[in-house]
Write a structure and sequence with these properties.
Elements: E1 2-7, E2 12-19, E3 24-31, H1 33-36, H2 44-65, E4 75-81, H3 85-102, E5 106-110, H4 111-122, E6 130-135, E7 140-147, E8 150-155, H5 162-172, H6 179-187, H7 212-224, H8 229-254, E9 259-263, H9 270-282, E10 286-288, H10 292-295, H11 300-311
Parallel strand pairs: 1-4, 4-5, 6-9, 9-10
Antiparallel strand pairs: 1-2, 2-3, 6-7, 7-8
Helix pairs in contact: 2-3, 4-11, 5-6, 5-7, 5-8, 6-8, 7-8, 8-9
The chain binds 5'-O-[(R)-(carboxyoxy)(hydroxy)phosphoryl]adenosine and zinc ion.
């Protein structure tokens, strides 16, 4: 089985060709950090225009690299949401055009399902069910993954996502976007115990996450001038890790899935990876995390989610809509603040 994956829901344009037996024949990701830097955040209109300019070339590039033609494809998978709607429409419409021209099935992939199934692309031994900590720029959730298309949300954020907290803290420290990698680098030179910072909701009976208070505390610490930026970065990173560990421990107690899995951009962070690996071991659960490049946005995970859905007989009609919001678990209770952002 050969699946083309297309992604443009945020600020990365990406295309990939993946086989049903987990071989990534070709993949390319082009970011837009330079285009957005002058504005200090992602400008949706600029992002959408950049996807329009770049995505067709990237599709040609991966097909050429793999010496494949559209007629060789078994399915075309494109992210259909959630995300910045102008950008989401680019990959989805490109996928529809290819599906129409090559007469191939279209799979409309939820970007979050791309992250959720990405560990199975990297780890052939990872079976359902598993407890997933999904930590990205737009989401911070704990989900029980029961199968393809079967997700039960156990927790979400009541304000900021974990990656969003990294990005905001980085901005307060004068670091460039995206903030996660910049904070991780600076934190290596800092003392994680130097700056006292809160751990919102840690120890709480409520299952959810919160990071807004932590961001405000970083703002105060930075403004006080009393601390080295590297100490603030290291203390902030440690506080996020402590929150993720505490909330995941709570979910582990409520979920008997044999494996703990972490995915999404923040899972590229070494401290996050090692703390969650330790937590799994303490709880006698197996642990799986994709390689860093597969944690941040890419099209290989979209192609793989497409392959999993196609294998399960799940394809979509050409009038499938692009969606700015699209929860993985439609039955989950609404939570204040959650899911507001892409
Ligand atoms: O999954 P992703 O690429 O895009 C979304 O779907 O949101 O996640 C991007 C987020 C950004 O907030 C970025 O700062 C964060 O992941 N991130 C990291 C690291 N690499 C990316 N956060 C902490 N440490 C990292 N090494
Ligand atoms: Zn993502």
């Amino acid at each position: 089985m050969l699946v083309l994956g297309l992604e443009s829901s945020c600020d990365d344009s990406a295309a990939a060709l993946v086989t049903g037996d987990r071989v990534i024949l070709a993949q390319v990701v082009v970011g837009q950090d330079e285009a957005h830097r002058p504005f200090g955040g992602i400008v949706p209109e600029i992002a959408a225009r950049a996807h329009v300019e770049r995505l067709p070339q990237l599709i040609r590039q991966v097909l050429d690299e793999a010496k494949a033609k559209p007629s060789d494809l078994d399915a075309i998978a494109a992210t259909a949401g959630p995300g910045l709607i102008g950008g989401v429409m680019v990959a989805l419409l490109a996928g529809k055009g290819l599906a129409l021209a090559a007469r191939k099935p279209l799979v409309a992939v939820n970007h979050l399902e791309g992250h959720a199934l990405s560990p199975r692309l990297a780890d052939a031994s990872l079976d359902f069910p598993y407890l997933l900590l999904l930590v990205s720029g737009g989401h911070c959730q704990l989900l029980e993954v029961r199968g393809v298309g079967q997700y039960r949300r156990l927790a979400t954020t009541i304000d900021d996502a974990a990656g969003e907290a990294f990005d905001k803290a980085a901005k307060l420290l004068g670091l460039a976007y995206p903030g996660g990698p910049a904070i991780e680098l600076l934190a290596r030179e800092g003392d994680p115990r130097a700056v006292p910072l809160p751990r919102p909701l840690v120890g709480s009976g409520e299952p959810h996450f919160s990071f807004a208070g932590l961001k405000s505390a970083v703002q105060r610490a930075a403004a006080s001038g009393a601390h080295r930026p590297a100490d603030i970065a290291a203390s902030f990173q440690q506080a996020v890790v402590d929150c993720l560990v505490d909330r995941t421990q709570r979910a582990l107690a409520a979920c008997d899935a044999p494996t703990l899995v972490v995915a999404g951009g923040v899972a590229a962070n070494q401290q996050v990876r090692s703390a969650l690996a330790d937590l799994a071991q303490q709880n006698r659960r197996a642990f799986s995390v994709p390689p860093g490049w597969l944690c941040t946005d890419n099209a290989a995970m979209i192609a793989w989610a497409g392959a999993e859905r196609f294998a399960a007989g799940l394809t979509d009609p050409l009038d499938v809509p692009a969606r700015a919001r699209w929860p993985l678990d439609a039955d989950a209770d609404k939570v204040r603040g959650a899911g507001v952002k892409a």
